[in-house]
Amino acid sequence: MNLEQFKTQYQTLQQSLEADFLKDPDSVESIVLARSNGVDALLKDIWQTFEIDPKLCLVAVGGFGRGELHLYSDIDLLILIPNGTHDQHQKSVSSFLTFLWDVGLEVGHATRDINDCEIEINDLSVVTNLLESRLLVGNNTLFLKMKSMIKSSNWSSQSFLVEKQKEQHNRHLNYSNTAYNLEPNLKESPGGLRDIQTVAWVAKWYFDVNLLSDLVDKSYLSECEYDLLKQGQLFLWKVRFALHVIAKRREDRIAFQYQKELASMLGYIDTDFMAVEQFMKDYYRTVTKVSRLNDILLQLLEDRILHTQNLNENFVISYGYIQATNDEVFKKHPTAFIEIFLLIAKHNYVRGINAGTLRQMQLDLDLIDENYYKKRQNNRLFIELLQQKRGVNKALKLMNRYGILEHYIPSFGQITGLMQYDLFHTYTVDQHTLFVIRNLRRFFVSEFAKEFELCSEIAKTINKPELLLLAGLFHDIAKGRGGDHASLGAQDAI
């Protein structure tokens, strides 16, 4: 088979997959697998055509190793060769790779022998890639030797977890630690596909399993959590595949120019809200759920892999996370839904909320009913939170992240994930509101006095800063309802 025949075969595969997706975007899981299988077959045919030395092997790594190839995803390959044979095989390997590019395949590649792997496996990105490697064709003995080397490497479960957490933290910082930019990166932003993969990588390393579903059998994932994680992944897959179709190339940023067409392609139609706003709201809500699960699951792994300060009868701090003393805390003391965030503000070194407590909080959320915000004790705790000298913004961000704000203040739920389809608003309404509160708080913090000189001077004359923060919290609360949002918001505040 010559070059033109292989090019035609690949183009036919791509066209077929695109047509299948446009016909039924909900079938994205099978389409992604079909591209992986189609590329598998193509690579094997080309490998055999080149009559590559049988001592070598061709290995799929990264997303291709997982069998996850979107329409224009890179095809990551490792060509594994016997020790000390780089010069011997350089020409044949180079010709093979050049042919792949001529066919039209976007290939990421590395050629290594076992000694190379042993050295480079100390790099986090390399060991992560090899973790999900699978043999395509060639020397199985060499492949198994490489796989066994991964398991006997210097990476312990503890070090792998800690480094993956650092990697995720740094990645989130690149996106201002928020998933709510109006042109989000669905792969790298908080709550994106990479957050799902991070959980999977660490869990697979610790439990030595291949599939996310296997983690249910290990009692690490509940059935409900697995379903939520899977739903989030499939939604993001649909968006990513559609993005590739529209952009005609590999693209992960949901740029403003693509959003309307994405909404249309995925079946959204204009109602009281524009189709594009409905689509983006679903996106933001999806990544919020993924972020919650990412928090819970990575912390559960910390508890398994990696002791305790008593705060009161309801809460302790364990391994840097605040934790309920028992599973009945929220049922017996509903005020604990606010109290826990007040304690986080008071103890600003707390890293977050313990996974088991987060899980229980989510199960008991319906206890925050329509009368909850009318109870004086709950409101007293919330005002006390706003009065704290430090940690207010951190506590409010966590309240929003875990769904407490929208339950405690029902009208806040209506602006959660709400975007405005224009170029004047950078963030969703809820995130904009939290940034406003953050900036208002800075007027009262001495280290920002030089940056906000006038505002800091005025702030000194305000006896009750919490009232200003409440005004900030409610200033856009009625956005998206129609009418004068300022007047409607004033009614909500009262």
In short:
This protein is an alpha/beta fold. 58% of the residues lie in helices and 7% in strands.
List the helices and strands and how they pair.
Layout: H1 3-23, H2 28-49, E1 57-60, H3 62-65, E2 75-81, H4 86-103, E3 107-113, H5 114-120, H6 124-131, E4 134-138, H7 140-151, H8 157-173, H9 193-207, H10 214-217, H11 223-247, H12 256-265, H13 275-305, E5 308-310, E6 315-318, E7 321-324, H14 329-332, H15 336-346, E8 352-353, H16 355-363, H17 376-386, H18 392-401, H19 404-408, H20 410-413, H21 429-442, H22 453-459, H23 465-474, H24 485-493
Helix pairs in contact: 1-2, 8-9, 8-13, 9-13, 11-12, 11-13, 12-13, 13-16, 15-17, 15-18, 18-21, 21-23
Q: Could you characterize the architecture of this molecule?
A:
The model has no long low-confidence stretch (mean pLDDT 89). A four-stranded mixed beta sheet has the order 3-2-1-4, sandwiched between helices. A four-stranded mixed beta sheet has the order 5-6-7-8. It is an alpha/beta fold and 494 residues long. Strand 5 (308-310) and strand 6 (315-318) form a beta hairpin. The protein has helices at residues 3-23, 28-49, 62-65, 86-103, 114-120, 124-131, 140-151, 157-173, 193-207, 214-217, 223-247, 256-265, 275-305, 329-332, 336-346, 355-363, 376-386, 392-401, 404-408, 410-413, 429-442, 453-459, 465-474, 485-493, and strands at residues 57-60, 75-81, 107-113, 134-138, 308-310, 315-318, 321-324, 352-353. It contains 24 helices and eight strands. It starts with a helix and ends with a helix.
